[in-house]
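ingest -> fold -> write
write: protein_1
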Amino acid sequence: MSPAPAVPLAAAKPAPLTRVDDAGVTTLTLDDPSSRNSLSEEMLAALGETFRAIAADRSVRAVVLAATGPVFSSGHNLKQMTARRADADRGRAYFAQVMDACAAVMQQIVALPQPVIAAVQGTATAAGCQLVATCDLAVASAKAQFCTPGVHIGLFCSTPMVALSRNVTPKHAMEMLLLGEMVPADEAFRMGLINRVVPAGEELAAAQSLARTIASKSTLTVATGKKTFYAQREMALGDAYRYAAAVMVDNMLARDAEEGIAATIEKRPAHWEDR
C-alpha cells in the first residue's frame, strides 16, 4: 500500500504539534487547546509533514498520538471554513482542499509502516473521532467521549463515517452518525472503537506501554502485518487468503522469521535485524 499523497495547505502560523522521540517510540501531541485541537489548516499540514518524515525514519518503531486539554480533537476548524464562504465560489474549492488534506492524513496513518496508537484523554468529535478510528490502536481515559455530531448542524459526518464504519458494526456506526450523541469510553470499548479504557490521566502512559511492546518486535514483521491487514480486508475471502498466503511465504523467507523461529526452538531471546 503506497502512502496517499498529502495535499499541502498554506499554514499561516507554526503548527501546534509537538514531537518527542524516546527509544523507538515517537509521541506526537496535538497542542492547541484554544481551538479544541481542531484539525485546522496548520494542524493538517503539520501532521502530513510529520507522518511523511516518520515513514522514512527507521529509528521510529511505533507512534503515539496524544493531545492536551479537555478535548482530544473537535474535528475540522469550522471558523476557518466559515470564513471562506466569502470566496467567489462560496468556499467550494477551499472545502474540497481541506477534505482532501484530511483524507490524505488519515490514509497516511493507515499506510505508515509503524503502528499508530491514539491516547485519548478527552472528547473526540467529528473528524477528531475519525482520527481515533483511523489509528491502529486506541487507549482512552475513562472520562473520554466520542461523537459524530454533524447531523445536529446540517453537516452529516460523511468523511468520519469512512473510518468509523471500518471499525464498528454498521448499526453502531449508523447510530452514532444519525443520533450524534456522545458515546462514553466504556460504550466505545464495547463497540470496538477503542481497545482499552484506563483511569483518567493514565491513558498516555498506557498507550506508550503498548508502543514499547510493539517497538520490541521486528519492524519488518510489524510493517508486513500492518500492510497486509489493511490490504486483505478490502478483498473477497478467496482473494484475501491467496494474498495473505503469498505474503506469509515471503515473510517466512525473511531473516527475522528465520531468527525468530530458531530462537523459539532453541528457547532463547530473538535478535532482530529488521530484515
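write: protein_2
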Amino acid sequence: MLDPYQLTLHTLTLRQLASAEQLAEITGQPVADVKAGLEKAVADGAVVAARGSYMIGPAGRELLDAAYPDAFAGLRATPAVAEAIEAFETGVNKRVLSLTTDWQTVEVDGARVPNDHADADYDAGILDRLGRTHEKTQKVLRPIADADPLVDRFLDRLGTALIRAEGGETDYVSGVRVDSFHTVWFQMHEHLLRVTGRERPE
C-alpha cells in the first residue's frame, strides 16, 4: 500500500485542488500529518501551493505512477479484485451515472429539461434507487475494500451523502460544492482505477 506521503499525493489526484483539511477528510489521516506531507511535497516540487490549497504537479504524478505497481501489486494480482472492478464498471457505475442524469433532468414532451425538484415523488424514487445501488456497490466492492480500507471509507462517505439528501439537502446528490454522492463517487472511481491500474472508460 502507499506510505503516508504517497497517500497525500495520491489524494490530490482524486480531489484536484484541495486544502489539507479536505484531503484529510478523504483519507482519515490526521490534518497535521497531511500538512507536513504537503509542505514536503511543495519543497520537493511535487505539489504546487495556491492560497491555502494544493495541486499535484507533473513530478508528483510521476512519483505516483512509479509507486502504484509495487504498492498495489498484491491487490492487482488477486482474481477477486479483478472480478470486482469489472462488475463495478459494467454494473453499478453505469447505474449511478444514469441516476445522476435522471436526478438532474426530467423528460417533458419527449425532451430532457433541468429538474426543478418540484416533484417530490420523482426525486424520492431516484433516491430510493440510489440507495439500493449503494447497497449493491458495498457488496460488489467488498473484495477490494477488504484489502484497501480507504474503499470502505468512500462507501461510508457515500452513505453519509445519501442520508443528507434523503433529509432534504438535495445538493448532496450531485452538487459540486459539497461532498455529494456524485462527488464522492467520482473520487472513489478514480481511486479504484489507480489501485487496479485501469484506464477511465470513455
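write: annotation protein_2
The chain has two domains: 4-71, 77-196.
The mean pLDDT is 95.
pipeline exit 0
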